[in-house]
From TrEMBL:
<dbReference type="InterPro" id="IPR011611">
    <property type="entry name" value="PfkB_dom"/>
</dbReference>
<dbReference type="GO" id="GO:0016301">
    <property type="term" value="F:kinase activity"/>
</dbReference>
<keyword id="KW-0547">Nucleotide-binding</keyword>
<keyword id="KW-0418">Kinase</keyword>
<feature type="domain" description="Carbohydrate kinase PfkB">
    <location>
        <begin position="1"/>
        <end position="291"/>
    </location>
</feature>
<dbReference type="InterPro" id="IPR029056">
    <property type="entry name" value="Ribokinase-like"/>
</dbReference>
<protein>
    <submittedName>
        <fullName>Sugar kinase</fullName>
    </submittedName>
</protein>
<comment type="similarity">
    <text>Belongs to the carbohydrate kinase PfkB family.</text>
</comment>
<keyword id="KW-0067">ATP-binding</keyword>
<keyword id="KW-0808">Transferase</keyword>
<dbReference type="Pfam" id="PF00294">
    <property type="entry name" value="PfkB"/>
</dbReference>
<dbReference type="InterPro" id="IPR050306">
    <property type="entry name" value="PfkB_Carbo_kinase"/>
</dbReference>
<dbReference type="InterPro" id="IPR002173">
    <property type="entry name" value="Carboh/pur_kinase_PfkB_CS"/>
</dbReference>
């Protein structure tokens, strides 16, 4: 009975080890990445249990993702392995001190072929939170159907549905993504969005938290990068500043923030406390390299500003 179930795409990552133009023989580090996988690891580091559902090749990349998630404490027993398609790949290098280049190799590969039939009976229904993102429906019709099926099962079982808009302009254009993401947000209890994403799916230009809530979710969380975050519920709007840190790699901060927030939901914290925990988790991720490697443990939540956000 996991605290959190999530589904999505995870890819093998090849990360250039030194700034500059990669050439044969350049050092690189292998890892893996995936927004939902990062959230799953994040809640595990905070002491909760999480299950990740997805589709990987039967190749070395797939093995690395499974080993990595399992090593981080995530339940991967229901992951589907596809003998016909490779695991997706992400090549990331620091071209200059200020410019990161990311190439994706994912089209038509195993992760994008996730479908509703890959969702095991009872897993979502037995969780406390289902977390999905707007990346998965961008991968194709079957992946989008899987997200809707997962939400349907969660709703019928009374499981809280969390949705991070996570609009990815490299995967689809705003006019195609907008209606799909709006519909998904409307089926969630809790929605996370950046300002641009909130504008995309609501058409509003201000009071974005309220505009998101009008779509259906009772709780809307706005992520504002180094400017902090806000949550809007039926009762109140609560804001928090970001925790000041030296930014090293902002990729993954949003997912770390979501993990912290959902951990607060699981612990029954009030909105202000869960927002603060989320901001600390986002700061950890923003100030370390890698998508998930810098995620905070529960014991570490004391750090930075001296405030205890462990409970
Ligand atoms: P996303 O990665 O989804 O675009 P954001 O960049 O808004 O999300 O980051 C999510 C949260 O992480 C922010 O609301 C903030 O609390 C924290 N965060 C992000 N970047 C920084 C930073 N440079 N310094 C401190 N906190 C940050």
């Amino acid at each position: 009975m996991p605290d959190l179930v999530t589904l999505g795409e995870a890819m093998l990552v090849v990360r250039g080890g030194v700034p500059g133009r990669p050439v044969p023989g350049s050092p690189a580090v292998l890892s893996f990445a995936g927004a939902e996988a990062t959230v799953a690891i994040g809640v595990c580091r905070l002491g909760h249990s999480a299950t990740w559902l997805g589709r990987l090749g039967t190749d070395t990349g797939g093995d690395l993702v499974v080993d990595g998630l399992r090593g981080a404490g995530v339940d991967v027993t229901a992951v589907t392995r596809d003998p016909d398609r490779a695991t997706g790949l992400l090549l990331r290098h620091q071209r200059t001190a200020d410019r990161v280049v990311v190439d994706y190799y994912r089209d038509g590969l195993a992760g994008s072929r996730l479908g509703p039939e890959q969702l095991p009976d009872g897993t979502i229904e037995s969780a406390r939170i289902l977390h999905v993102t707007g990346i998965t429906p961008a991968l194709g019709d079957s992946a989008r159907a899987a997200v809707h099926e997962a939400i349907g099962r969660a709703r019928r079982a009374g499981v809280t549905v969390s949705f991070d808009v996570n609009y990815r302009s490299r995967l689809w254009a705003p006019d195609r993504a907008g209606p799909v993401l709006r519909e998904l947000a409307g089926r969630a209890d809790l929605v996370f969005a950046g300002a641009d994403e909130a504008e995309l799916i609501t058409g509003a230009r201000d009071d974005l938290g309220s505009a998101l809530r009008k779509l259906g979710p009772g709780e809307a969380v706005l992520k504002r990068g180094a400017a902090g975050a806000a949550v809007v519920t039926a009762d109140a709007t609560v804001e928090t500043a970001a925790v000041p840190v030296t930014q090293v790699d902002p990729v993954g901060a949003g997912d770390a923030f979501v993990a912290g927030y959902l951990s607060g939901v699981l612990d029954g914290l009030a909105p202000a406390q869960r927002l603060h925990r989320a901001a600390v988790c986002g700061a950890f991720a923003a100030s370390t390299a890698g998508d998930w490697e810098g995620l905070a443990t529960r014991a570490e939540l004391l750090s930075f500003d001296g405030q205890d956000v462990r409970r």
